[in-house]
Amino acid sequence: MNNSEARQEIDHLIAAGDLTTAARELADLWVNEASPSAASFVVQRFEALRKNLKLQPYRLAILRSFTVEPMVPLFRAAAFCAGIDLTIYVSDFNAYVQAMVDSGSTLYAFAPDAALLAVQTRDVVPEFWDDFGSLKEEQIHAIAQRVSSEFRDWVRAFRKHSPAHLILHNLEQPMNPSWGLLDAQQRDGQTAAIADINTAIRNLASEQAGIYVLDYERLIARHGRATWHDERKWVTVRLPIAASNLNHVVQEWMRFLHPLTGKLAKAVAVDLDNTIWGGIIGEDGMEGIRLGTEYPGSAYQAVQRALVDLYQRGILLAVCSKNNREDALQALEKHPGMILKPWHFAAMRINWTEKSQNLREIAEELNIGIDALAFLDDNPIERQQVRSALPEVFVIDLPTDPVNFSRAVRQCPLFERLSLSAEDQQRGAIYQAQRERQQLERGVTSREDFYRSLHQEAEISPLTKATLARVAQLTNKTNQFNLTTRRYSEQQIADIAASEGWECFSLRLRDRFGDNGLVGVAITHLEGDVSQIDTLLLSCRVIGRSVETALLSFLAERARAHGARRLQGWFLPTKKNAPARDFYAAHGFTTAHQNGDGTLWSLDLAANPIPAPEWVRVRILNGDR
Amino acid sequence: MSTTLLDRVRSIAADVLEVPVDRISAGSSPETIDTWDSVHHLNLVLALEQEFNLQFEPEEIDQMKDIHHILEILGNKVTQG
User: How far is CA A263 from the centre of its chain?
Assistant: First the structure.
């Protein structure tokens, strides 16, 4: 039964003007009842509320070879509940090729932020779906080649006309191959032929920025091929997917939407007792807790492995546990069943304080926003406490059976990433070095002594192919020390760097504790005798070490070398970039213009040298072009 | 039984067709509800399939001309099941 009480409650909240609670209850309704009727209700209510809520607008095009209309309200409902106001364009039936190839098509007029190419094996390569048994070996190769190059042409056409992200559904396998068991014995079987095309599609994505593959074949396998389709609706209304699976497609689309819109968790705080081991360490002791290769300890090892995978992806781990510190640390350090090690954790709060307070402290210590924190706890009471005290924190709903814990962690869309930089993979280690740095800072007396003791070395380089992904990522993720908070895709960054008069630089920072990786970006363009700073940002973990001055000094030198007389830059205030507010004033800039968006600061280059701080060694590289 | 079935269908139809529950009666049809177009009809069919955990035959979908016929077809399938 669809829950009419919950619906009435939501309408009461809206009537009473409590829109934040109404939005939260709509999200809860969606979690409990992800059906077409709930979707319709959720979308209608959010459409009425959208102007009063801070939702992120996003434009998405669906290019399709089958009926997707019933999934549109499901998709919009799921997106609304994640804080995203989705405008969806659906291409005409089977007109996806024209839409991509024709620069004047309604697709490009729509100006999507991202597009999905949702096509099926039976539409793009019907020979492989229906007639495979009668194909000769050379025909099979020719067809696979043709379809692979069609995909390549479509992607090329799309890229020529649009800077948007493009997500390609790969091709599904048939339930029963034409040759039966023989298919698996042959080198040129149906399965192998379809897999060849999928390899070609994957290569397209790995070669280019902003092109991604949605593994549709795996999606079907994960949910069960035997019950995936509805052949009757395929024949009658061109909808090949059974009603009960429509939301699985939508969930998969949402896994892409989260990284595309930056609705991500940078860290996850985990409880200990009954979450990463079975039992209570303070009562059951080292020998009593369940953690090992036998059931049920194996379920907890599985969730630990899932967390290690997140760590490898660059997501920070923290402990948030009500326990006696010594008991918990002993288990973390010495229990033979532990997969996670103490060094995996960037912060620890093991005490008897309320979890919401500990989470606040963890976010502060890790220098991330509270809305970039996820929380993993088996105890529904603790989850509820955090949910009501800190609605910004993403609370993962763990199922009751620990066997399913690892799945809940692995399927959480907030941990999805679409590209990974070297920095992401080292992030855990970088934060550990940061803790050592802070200990050093407490040991030295003056600020300058501290800077000197760091032995900082900044390497400034023009944009290269190798740094493109990280540079785009920084423009999308950096909130605090970011003067203009302009978000750019990889494609946009590449276009900017190639434009006349524009330059894009990245900054890498090393110090005595190790390599901080690529942590700064500056984009400038020259207009007459003014060098304009379009973007200037620094990752929060290196703010306040005067590296920003070194970067600005470099930009001033560079502007002078290009014959500029003034260096200018906007400060556009946001909720989060207060740390950058006084940056230009502190370096001698004066206000040149002010409007509702922000302040334009200007510096006379002849009268105001910006000396680089002596404690940052700067090396300038030439890049690869 | 039939009251419950009617209530369930009414509340689903109200959600999907974007009208208040009290606008939906056994006689409601595309003629009386403006929003009941072909896309909404498909959405209604899918919503009912998911809610009652069944799949309709194409002929049954063709016969769903109003709430009354939907109840009749559902009634047959649910009691059969």
Answer: 6
